[in-house]
Structures are given as C-alpha cells and as structure tokens.
C-alpha cells in the first residue's frame, strides 16, 4: 500500500503535557494529509509557542501558550530559505506546501511577504508543487491578508459547526467571517465536527443553524471531518462517519454546485 511507504521527515515534534505537539522547526514533514496527500508544512509562528486567534479544544498542537520573551517571528527570507533547503533534500517533491504549523499563519506580521518568498522558492525548486493555507479566517477581512491568500493555489478556511465559544475557544462574528470568505473564491471551507460535554456540533439543531452560514460563505468546496486522534480536551469526542455523510448530504442540497467531501 502506498500509504505504508515511510516518508523522510524534516523537523522534529515536541510533545506537550496537554496531549498536543509542536513542530520545532519552520518546515515540517512531509506528512500524509487526509485531504492533500503528501504535504510539506510551513510554520510561521515563533518556535516553542502555540499562537492562534482561536483556541480550539481539539487542536493537534494543544492549547494556546504564552510567547517566550526571546522568541521572534521568523523573517520571510528565513522561511523561504528553510522551504528551499527542505525541497532540495527531498527525493520526490511534495504535492503541497502548506502554511499551517503551530497556530494561525496569518498572524505573522509579514504574512504577505512570507507568501511571496515561499512562492518564489517553490517556483525555483519544485514548480509542480502547489502552495496552500489552513487558516481560521479571522484576518481574511484585511486587504493585505486577503490579497496574499489569493496568490496561493488553495485556501482552506475554517468554519466549524457548533457553539463558537466551545468548539473554537472564543466568540467572533461568524456572519462577518462568511462575508469575508466570499472574496476568497475559489476556496474550501474546512469544518471539524466534534462533540463536547453538553454539546454536539453534529446535532440536527447545530446543523440547521450552520447551513445558512455555509450558504452565506458560498464556498466552492467543503471538507468535512472529525477527530482521528485524542484531543487536548479529554471531553472532546469524534463524530461517526455515518453522521458526517448525512451532514454532507444536507450541505449538497444547500450548495448543489459545491464539491463536498468527507475525510
């Protein structure tokens, strides 16, 4: 089986007491992604910290941390040089180079410049690799961030069902988020569906509240998935694939032109 073939790993991971794990380098992987295939990750956050404008209880990096006093954001040139070196060491280029890492990539103060530098490195070393981003979208309304996102080959933007303060660890204007997403087309909504103590993001009521939001966001694709590993919050549980398929069917009825996949 192809999935059993080991991949050369660039960059170690450090396990955390809450069950999460942090990459210890700018470039990590390549890893086999359920959605992207073989992907080389790019971490833009200061090393040793989990920094995100969400604080999702299911995040594989664990909960947010304080930024170390001596930690700094990697410069765009450092990021591009790390990507270039990793690509040159790989016998086979990855299908994807993905901005993700230990938190929200658009928090980088020079995110737009980092995007341009990484795209240039890709063009030089692995021109067939596509460059994408996994983002919670809270900065998508910024002109500078939006323009940088649009220069990428793919935008996978978070829009989870369920109560935001529980499933994403904070409150935000979901309607404004959906409106900002429409300017990113073509793009995909990435939706993690989980259950917690006293709430279920896969319930009929949650789905009914979420579908109009997805319709408002008008994505070209929806990626629906649940946990395949323990969560930092031990009360978080995965949702059965059968229920995800039922939710996918409802999304297809709401957005007949969108590609809806369960992972």
Structural class: alpha/beta
Radius of gyration: 18 Å
Shape summary: globular
Poorly predicted runs of 5 or more residues = 1-6
- The count of domains is 2
Count helical runs: 7
Helix content: 25-40%
Query: What order do the SSEs take from the amino end to the carboxyl end, as H and E?
Result: EEEEHEHEHEHHEEEHEEHE
The proportion of strand residues reads 15-25%
Number of β-strand runs: 13
| Most strands sheet | 8 strands, mixed
**Amino-to-carboxy terminus distance:** 19 Å
Write down the overall mean pLDDT: 93
**Major sheet: arrangement of strands:** 3-4-5-6-7-8-11-13
Key structural traits:
2 domains, globular, disordered N terminus
Helices and strands in order, then pairings?
Layout lengths: L12 E3 L5 E3 L3 E7 L3 E6 L33 H14 L6 E4 L11 H15 L4 E6 L7 H8 L3 E5 L5 H4 L6 H8 L6 E5 L1 E3 L2 E2 L3 H14 L3 E5 L11 E2 L2 H14 L4 E4 L1
Parallel strand pairs: 4-5, 5-6, 6-7, 7-8, 8-11, 11-13
Antiparallel strand pairs: 1-2, 3-4, 9-10, 9-12
Helix pairs in contact: 1-2, 2-3, 5-6, 6-7
Q: Care to give the gist of this entry?
A:
With 263 residues, this protein is of the alpha/beta class. The protein has seven helices and 13 strands.
